[in-house]
User: Fold this.
Amino acid sequence: LNLALYIPILTYILVVVNLVAFIFFFFFQAEDGIRDAQESRGLGDVYKRQDGTRLQDRINDERNWRFGYTTHLVDTVSLMCKDDGTAAVAMARAGLAAAHSMFEYHQSDGEKCALAAAVQGGGQFRFHTGVVQRDPRDVLTRKVVVAEPIPIEVPFNGGTYSGQDLVALVQSWVTDGTAEPSLARAVEEIGLGASRMDFTGESGTFREHPWQDLTGHTFLLLGATSEMGPLYHLLDANATVIPIARRSKDSAKWRKILNHCHDTGRGRLLVPLSRPWTEVPDTTSKGFQEACGADLISELPELVDWITSPQLAQAIGDHHPLKIYCGIYLDGEAFVRASLAMDVLVQACAEKLAQKPMLLYIDTPSHVHMVQAETRQKSRGLMKSVPLLQKLLATVGVMRPNQFVEGEKEWCLFNGLAVAQGPNYAVAKLLQRWRALVAREDGARVSVTTGPPAKTESVMHSQTMAMVMNGCHLVRPNVAMQPSTVQALLALVMIRDILSPFAFANPEVKLPHPMDLFWENAWHGGAWQSPFDMKSVGIYILTRHYSLRVVLVLVLALALRLMYQLLAH
Assistant:
């Protein structure tokens, strides 16, 4: 064999690398479509009302909002991180006010009105309350038997982890660079703590209480059936849950929720019904299941009326603040409308309920984050030890390093925005952050936890995304987790944020800066500490996959040629 034989191999590899890079760039840039870009362009007004005329001028002059929004979003978050954080809260209030004023509500009769007016006026249709729980009395003795809560165990790689084993597992993730140290401290606090102090309303005293016994606590889950939601873990902890998900004639999703409560005897469900409970008294019937549910976007005024009604307050009947989990996700511009609808409901509850509700959010690593300076140092350190092929691709500009923007001595900005996700996704997540900042400043407890990439059904149905998720571990320290792992651990951290006096979620904990709320407990799956940005990770995985195929074919062809030459002689 001479050098001429290798020229086709090298040529094919270079062609594949460039072709994959082009396809990956085009596919992910154009995924959201023209309609989404047009819908979200006007959302630049949310930023225009913020502090900083230079930023406002740049946004006004932007002619390619669909692909040019990232620079302005980085600048916006950078302004929020300045000084002592006063600007962050002020910008959040102004941004939410601007967003609320920009949208209007379309009523079922075709009339249009301002969003605030729709909620204040109330809905024409009033939901009914269905109570679902198993009879706690023993079948034979008729004595009340209270089901003990089930402690959360985290499934991972075929095993289950709790207590010290779970602490060690999370600490290994911190060491690997897929989570921040604060996550390990949070898990250690709740994982090794046998009990905590809790207020008992009946006697007006405090008593010892297991960490994962949520008896008397009520959770309003917006997007209750989402794959990453904490619904079943909360029920197993004996919580009262108000699940909000859309009605469906195919009642399989509601049947699963109701059956879980019936079968385990743990927890209690308060469900919105489209019919009076007297018409469908059997909670196991198909009629009851079809009556369950509500659409937050199209039935927002009616839901606000029901959730803040004395009727539901009487059904809840406890002395703890309502906990609102904002977990709805929709594609494209619908995600902006869903996030705004969740925010309107949160604000209405804060204004109308006797106690300020606690807020629960799952954040994304693919946004602009204020991170500790050591996170950037770890990312730069990993760049020195990447494999040869990744170094070569970085040298020719195919793979780009993670983007960090200079900040103060102890922190910097991480730009994890994925242009593929589009401005709608970025704006929707920013609305949630703004509400978190404002609510905590106003005295509410707010839990925000950054979750890692997960192999959810909605992600894995795409062959390309499935390939990226299954191969992201090839670029250390990136990983993609199974949904069951993420669901269990995030539920555990959420419970800790609700109950711990030391959590950043607690408004009584003094933070150096309000934006610090978003990095505590961060489980980013390696995205923050990765030597390369996530787009480059995807390009590398696809390049490696298709290059190996080409090389195998060429090697096989060369082998067959050699065999033919040997046999010919």
Q: What stands out?
A: The chain is about 50% helix and 15% strand. Residues 44 and 336 are 13 Å apart (CA to CA). The first strand starts at residue 104 and ends at 106. Confidence is low (pLDDT under 50) at residues 1-7, 20-52, 137-142, 199-207.
